[in-house]
Amino acid sequence: MKRLMTQTAKLGAAAALAAMLASSPALAGGDKAGKSPWGPQDEIGTLNMMTDASRQEILQRIETGKVYDLGVDLFVGMPDCCSAAFGDPTYQMWMIHAPARGDGSGELLSHSSEAISMNTHTGTHIDTLSHFGLHGKLFNGVSANEALGVRGWSKSGAEKYPPIVARGVLIDVAKAKGVDILPASYAITVDDLKEALARQATTLSEGDVVLVRTGQMSAWPDKSKLTLFTQSGLSLEAAEWLAEEQKSMVLGADNLGLESFPSTNRENFAPVHSYLLAEKGVSFIELLWLEELARNEVYEFAFITSPLKLRGASGSPIRPVAIPVKRGS
């Protein structure tokens, strides 16, 4: 694995992932893209669980004007998932128009604007269903041969995603275990989630946005402590429990890739990614800022965000917010 990581640092993200997955004889668990229960035209998976009634229900329970910003700043030199791991481009911003220097007397009117360059999986972002597939197919049988072009995907791209308004739940695993940060590469178990929920006196409901805190963002923005291949995160079993038994609509975490890395299952580089996105149609959010929610013990809230309408993109930066609500019965 160490040798492979060194080699992949020189490759692009797509080539790196292909090399890692190709090195395995078979994927653990399922190895076929799932079929959507919402019909052959579905491109958003479990986001179909959201309705006008569900949105109204959670908004009506808001009891304060306090808003928690769950997004991180985007800046040059920021930590990211994949520049070190896969050689992906880093976030860059540069001025393309700027006021004249000096006392300003030579200009009646000045203006400034910038250009940016970034991976769509930079900062706080959502992974869409086009991000991972199995045997050349995305969730709901979308074929790369038919739906992938040089400008992205014609199916299941970020522009297809609706604004997300739903009940959000924070599961503070780090606090439940009495640590600031979970150990490197720790794989969160189903029992860990249950114990944290019990400690918080919080229950999950169908259609929730479930956010898991590992504590890693307490080290933000120290790049030496925020690296993909040493991160704690969800185990495959924990993801299965949340997606299948709890019927969560969207998952999220305060780490770089939701799941723990390196995978404890050596047959699959990213088993949680392929399971959630390709098999179950569950989108998820990475690099969430959950420190303030955790500090104030806000475990239930209205979760609101929206991806940018990046046509054909497999991910999109977002700026989610959480607004505390009256606790459910």
Structure at a glance:
One of its GO terms (molecular function) is arylformamidase activity. InterPro entries: KFase/CYL, KFase_sf. This protein has helices at residues 2-8, 13-22, 52-60, 83-86, 144-147, 173-176, 190-200, 236-245, 271-280, 291-295; strands at 68-69, 92-97, 113-117, 125-127, 148-149, 152-153, 164-172, 187-188, 209-213, 233-234, 250-253, 284-286, 300-305, 315-317, 321-324.
Can you identify the CATH superfamily?
Putative cyclase
Report the structural category.
Answer: alpha/beta
Number of helices: 10
Mean pLDDT, as a whole number?
A: 90
User: In percent terms, what proportion of residues is strand?
Assistant: 15-25%
If you compute it from the alpha carbons, what radius of gyration comes out, rounded to the nearest whole angstrom? 20 Å
The count of strands amounts to 15
Tell me which CATH architecture applies here: 3-Layer(bba) Sandwich
Q: Which segments are poorly predicted (pLDDT under 50) over 5 or more consecutive residues?
A: 1-28
The CATH class designation is Alpha Beta
Structural domains: how many: 1
CATH fold node name: Glucose Oxidase, domain 1
Strand and helix order: HHHEHEEEHEEEHEHEEHEHEHEEE
Q: Which strands sit side by side, in order, in the main sheet? A: 1-15-13-7-9-11-12-4-14
Question: What would the principal axes of the Cα set say about the shape?
Answer: globular
Summarize the main sheet: 9 strands, mixed
Helix content: 10-25%
**N-to-C span:** 48 Å
Task: Offer a few descriptive terms.
329 residues, alpha/beta, Glucose Oxidase, domain 1, 9-stranded mixed β-sheet, two-stranded antiparallel ribbon, 10 helices, 22% helix, 18% strand, disordered N terminus, Cyclase family protein, KFase/CYL, signal, KFase_sf, arylformamidase activity
